[in-house]
Amino acid sequence: MASPQRADVEQSEGGRRRNVRVLVLVLMVLGVVFVVGYVQRLSARDGVAAEIASLEARIADAQLRQNILADQLQDVEKPSTLAAVARDELNMVLEGDQPIVILDPPAATATPKAPMGESGQARGVQVSEKPPWQQWWELVWGE
Predict the structure, then answer these.
(1) Which of 97, 69, 70 is nearest to 83 (CA)?
(2) In whole angstroms, what is the distance from residue 59 CA to residue 8 CA?
(3) If residue 36 lies in a helix (H) or strand (E), which one and from where to where?
C-alpha cells in the first residue's frame, strides 16, 4: 500500500504538471497575441509609408507645376511677349505700321457686293485691277 506521503507527492506533482501546462498555454496565447499585434502594426506602418510616399509624389508634382507656372508668368510679363500676343491673337498693330489683310480671291459664280455710298460707288473698299504680285511689289518697294 502506498503511504499517505507518497499520495500527497503524486497529487502535488499532478497539480504542478497542470500548473505547468496552464502556464505554457497562457504563454502561448500571449505569444500569439503579441505576434498578431506586431503583424497588424507592421501592416499599418506599411500603409502609412505608402500614403506618405504618395503625398510626397503629389507635393513634387505640385512644386513642378508651380515652377512651370512661375516661368510662364515671367514670360507673359515680358514686353516682347505682350507685343506678340497683341499682334498675333488680338490683331493689333503699332502706330505707324501698315496692316495688310489678305483676302481670298472671289469665287467665279459669286460676285461680292461692297457696301455702296450715296454716290453709288463702293465706299471704304479699294479694289485694284492689278495682279496681286504687282500690288505686293508696290507695297514693299513703293513704286
Answers:
(1) 97
(2) 75
(3) helix 4-77
* Dihedral pair phi/psi, residue 109, rounded to 5°: -90, -30
Q: At what angle do helices 4-77 and 79-88 cross, to 10 degrees?
A: 70
The amino acid present at 24, given as its one-letter code, is V
What is the tens place of the pLDDT at every residue in 100-138? Answer: 777 777 665 555 555 555 555 555 556 667 887 888 888
Instruction: Evaluate if pTM is beyond 0.70.
Output: no
In sign, the C-alpha dihedral spanning 45, 50, 51, 53 is positive
Question: What is the rounded average pLDDT of the residues 77-87?
Answer: 89
The strand pairing partners of 116, in sequence order, are: 122
Cα–Cα distance for residue pair 81/77, rounded to 1 Å: 7
